[in-house]
Amino acid sequence: MSESRTEISSLGEFGLIEHLTRNIELQNASSIVGVGDDAAVIDHFGKQTVITTDLLVEGIHFDLMYTPLKHLGYKSVVVNLSDIYAMNATPTQITVSIAFSNRFSVEALSEFYEGIYAACEKYGVDLVGGDTSSSQKGFVISVTAIGEVTPGKYVRRDTAKKGDLICCSGDLGAAYVGLLFLEREKQIYLESPQVQPDLEGESYVIGRLLKPEARKDIVEFLEIQNIVPTSMMDISDGLSSEILHICEQSKLGCVLYEEKLPIAEEMRKAAFKFEIDPTACALSGGEDYELLFTMSQSDYEKIVLNEQISVIGYMTDAEEGMKINTRGGQVHPISAQGWNAFKK
Ligand code: ADP
Ligand code: MG
Q1: 218-254 pLDDT, tens digit each
Q2: What gap in Å lies between CA 260 and CA 310, rounded to an integer?
Q3: For position 204, which CATH number holds?
Q4: Do 127 and 185 belong together in one domain?
């Protein structure tokens, strides 16, 4: 914690809001009225508006024992922007609502907002409003993101076609393994506080959990390449659960290839330390915030050189079910939890 502690009560609610939002400079022409009035005003100049919201509750979605407040602020924004990009849209504004107990000081909330503003700057979005309340216990965060898309260019989950390639950005499973490390160190700390945390060498997987990014670059790449994915979503709950959504909503089946799943070397090594299967982590680990999309086979040449995009399978008839071909040449059904290897 920081050296000085200013009680929220010394500023009051309005003083606190003013303190947290005093330096906002609106970046988007579409942000007409921002913080300070009864509501924000947004002009999307003939574009369609995309909107998404997420609620994050201390003890359920995050643990402040190992989550720095600045990272938490950043991540709270990024997870919402990821949903906007997953619609093939561009995020433009956010609102942030918070409730906090008297455990939190002005300094702590300022740190949280530093993370919020860092994400706003990185992704070019404006903070245009929010709400502030106290809570009896813990920290509650609600972020709403608003974006814009050329009419009709949004991409849904229910429009994949048979034969389409299934693609995924970045690499999968690392955030989950990062969580395993942090949870392990937390337990050790609770039992023996004098023991120094041993997270040496795990910065990649831990960073993937604590400081995820939204795949703005992928949406921009697809646009430049003139690729409109046939379906798209972001991977927040794990690949297998997300591909099930695309299959069910598009009324299709799929085949994935284990050897094609993008796995970072850091994740593979880290998974072995916990004696778990990296493939299971890639299928079932959550919070990667990568994009999962399908596209026509005729677009293959346009993506083949992009190392940030992996083709991991293809869409089939619904009757074929949802399957994964393993390295060993076996075929397993995919369930929302991934596959059985995960439960060993
Ligand atoms: P109201 O009483 O109408 O709800 P508030 O006093 O809650 O208004 O908010 C005043 C202004 O400050 C509004 O523009 C609101 O969107 C903004 N605001 C309130 N809380 C936050 C916050 N935590 N972060 C950013 N903006 C906020
Ligand atoms: Mg209010």
Answers
A1: 999 999 999 999 999 999 999 999 999 999 999 999 9
A2: 7
A3: 3.90.650.10
A4: no
Distance (Å) from CA 72 to ligand 1 centroid: 20
**Taking Cα atoms as reference points, which of 337, 330, 205, 307 lies closest to residue 258?**
330
Same-domain status, 190 and 327: yes
Indicate whether residue 38 lines ligand 1 (CB < 6 A).
yes
Closest to 251 in 3D by CA, of 183, 335, 158? 158
Residue 315 contacts by C-beta under 8 Å, 6 or more apart in sequence?
Answer: 160, 161, 162, 163, 164, 166, 247, 250, 252, 253, 254, 294
Q: Are residues 131 and 232 in the same domain?
A: no
* Single pTM value for the model: 0.94
291 touches 86 (CB < 8 A): yes
Ligand 1 lined by 131 (C-beta under 6 Å): yes
Q: Which two tokens stand for residue 214?
A: 């939204």
158 lies in some domain: no
Ligand 1 nearest-atom number relative to CA 14: 6
